Amino acid sequence: MGKIAVLGLGPSKELFNHVLNDFTNVIGVNDIWRFYKTDAIVCLDYPRVFTPDRIKVINESKPEAFYSQMVIWDTRPDFKKINITPGYPDLICNIDGPEYQKSYCSPFVACQVAFKVYGASEIHLYGVDMKNHPHLDRDLCKSIKIHFSHLKKALELKDCKLIVHGAGILTEGL
Question: What range defines the domain where residue 134 resides?
Fold first, then answer.
């Protein structure tokens, strides 16, 4: 059981400091290696979704593990296949079993990887602000907040804390 950081790409990722916080592992999403060399990456999108500069960073990253549900990434030596359940956790988030629940953002799954794979007792979430996100509108952000609320409750039932850093939508009454 350890203290795990999950890094999104929003502005509050700048609050992350591995040395001061003594994290046992750090998990990032997508092209996080532009900013931090994480132990693991969670990437839930097709390569074609990313701009050339972002896909270059993803392709050149060398984490210990690269988690995705998409087998298009399986040519990577660090690829770890995960299975995503159908539907969304609009009413409850079930973190039991080998499958992962999804939301509309990769950090949601990365938090579950932190718990299921790395045995997190605390998950510190940075860079998941969702304010002025280029691809997520107000309704999707509202759903993301609900999903994270259910995830936080499910984690608490397993004695794992979810701590959100920054001033994004998840710090407003999660």
Answer: 2-167
